[in-house]
Design a protein that fits this description.
The chain is an alpha/beta fold and 428 residues long. The protein has 2 domains: 162 residues, Beta Barrel (Lyase, Ornithine Decarboxylase, Chain A, domain 1); 182 residues, Alanine racemase (TIM Barrel). Helix content is 29%, strand content 24%. It has 12 helices and 21 strands. Helix 6 links the parallel strand 8 and strand 9. Helix 2 packs parallel to helix 3, helix 5 packs across helix 6 and helix 8 runs parallel beside helix 9. The longest helix is centred in the middle third of the chain and has 20 residues. The radius of gyration is 23 Å and the shape is globular. The structure holds ligand LLP. The site of ligand LLP has 21 residues, from helix 10 and helix 11. Ligand LLP binds next to helix 10 and helix 11.
Length: 428
């Protein structure tokens, strides 16, 4: 973590004073430490010990060009889930063959884009259902091109309590992936096609794993399947196995360490060898673990409200800027920006945003009795801006990109006048 306080007590991210940033960029503002994100990518890549691999960064966590370029600069590829994300990855200089495309319902237009780019299309279109196979094949024929595909399996396992129900994707009722009983059929269909080339077998079972054990349990299902397919003479063109993302981050700041992304990779590699699959490259699709801890959301305190029943601290960031607490009951630490919290002056505040929803609530936090001018919501680099909305006529937050102790880029906020005029024009 590259958050630190300077001698005056002001919170800095990547060496940049967040109070100065808030004044310069306005709030709410997301700030990203690009050096720390790049270091995260390097640390993860080292865990492969030079074995063939691809860290396909899951753009859905943070699509900002500054972030994607920083990770691409460390040799990351991309996992995209829409034609739009594909365009961002390409525009940030990621080679088409280093991009995999997941998603349960890709449109024809999106498939065409994936098939058309570069000399031979993207690295792999990840097939998530038997039904999708004929659709991809039809687009391949229409384009007159061969298409590399991978079958994303649904390992059909319940990883009880390992992750939040909304982000568990590897069980029987999830819409994701080819159900385990249908995998052999899917592989046969792909191999019967003259236009599709089966280059990978993939899975992604959920997000925010803090322990490698449930991940390994799922990895064994995938690798076991790949081994038996090969024993039955299938998968001759396989080039990779992809165990997905899901490496967790520590949102609590607790002293007890959680598994690091590199631990998941080492555990998966050990299973890969055990299953005799060392000839295949190992792909992973981490999103959150690359960026979450290296981004903060800085907000100004608008006012306090004190009643007999509660004390609220009302800030200018809401659930429209960071929806995770409202959507998943997620808890992000909140700290004062200008001065370190002094225990003797701390009280419990319920930190809330301005949005007209009871769920616009960031939880109870220890903060100074005298409301600070600004607060930082920590670990907001993943699934923050990408899930933001304009609900209640609130403008999207801006983003600032930090490198070498400097602000190296930032985005501009739309004005409320622009937004209001556009909404007023709708339907006119
Ligand atoms: N690959 C696939 C196919 C995915 O569906 C996902 C995430 C990832 C990779 C990256 O997973 P990660 O390494 O970030 O855990 N909005 C939620 C998380 C949703 C994750 C959806 N899929 C949150 O804020 O917690």
């Amino acid at each position: 973590m590259t958050l630190a306080r300077d001698p005056s007590g002001t919170l800095c991210l990547g060496g940049v004073r967040l109070e100065a940033l808030a004044s310069e960029a306005g709030t709410p503002v997301y700030a990203y430490d690009l050096d720390a994100m790049a270091a995260e990518a390097r640390a993860l890549r080292e865990a492969f010990d030079g074995a063939p691999h691809l860290v396909a960064y899951a753009l859905k966590a943070n699509t900002a060009g500054g972030v994607v370029r920083a990770l691409a600069g460390e040799g990351c590829g991309a996992d995209v889930v829409s034609g739009a994300e594909l365009l961002v990855a390409l525009a940030c200089g990621i080679a088409p063959e280093r991009i995999v495309y997941s998603g349960v319902a890709k449109t024809e237009r999106e498939l065409d884009r994936a098939i058309a780019c570069g000399a031979s299309g993207i690295g792999a279109v990840q097939l998530e259902s038997v039904e999708e196979i004929a659709r991809v094949e039809a687009r391949a024929r229409a384009a007159g091109r061969d298409v590399r595909v991978s079958v994303r399996i649904n390992p059909s396992i319940e990883l009880e309590g390992a992750t939040h129900a909304h982000i568990a994707t590897g069980h029987d009722r999830a819409k994701f992936g080819v159900p385990r009983p249908d995998v052999a059929h899917a592989v046969r269909l792909v191999e019967a096609s003259s236009r599709l080339e089966l280059v990978g077998m993939a899975m992604h079972v959920g997000s925010q794993f803090t322990d490698t054990a449930p991940y390994v349990q799922a990895v064994r299902v995938l690798f076991g399947l790949v081994r038996s397919l090969r024993e039955a003479g299938h998968g001759r063109a396989l080039a990779f196995v992809d165990t997905g993302g899901g490496f967790g981050v520590d949102y609590t700041g607790a002293a007890v360490p959680i598994a690091r992304p590199a631990d998941f990779v080492r555990a998966a590699r050990a299973e890969q060898s055990r299953h005799g699959l060392d000839d295949l490259a190992l792909y992973v699709e981490p999103g959150r673990s690359m960026v979450a801890a290296h981004g903060v959301l800085v907000a100004r305190v608008i006012q306090a409200k004190v009643a007999a029943t509660a004390r609220w601290l009302m800030i200018d960031a809401g659930m429209n800027d960071l929806v995770r607490p409202a959507l998943y009951q997620a808890r992000h630490r909140i700290v004062p920006v200008e001065h370190e919290l002094v225990a003797a002056h701390a009280i419990r505040w319920r930190v809330v945003g301005p949005v007209c929803e009871s769920s616009d609530d960031f939880g109870e936090h220890s903060l100074p009795r005298e409301p600070p001018r600004a607060v930082a919501i920590l670990d907001a680099g993943a699934y923050g801006y990408t899930m933001a909305s304009q609900y209640n006529g609130r403008q999207l937050p801006v983003e600032a990109f930090l490198r070498g102790g400097q602000i190296v880029g930032r985005t501009e906020r739309t004005t409320v006048e622009q937004w209001a005029a556009a909404r007023a024009r709708a339907g006119a």
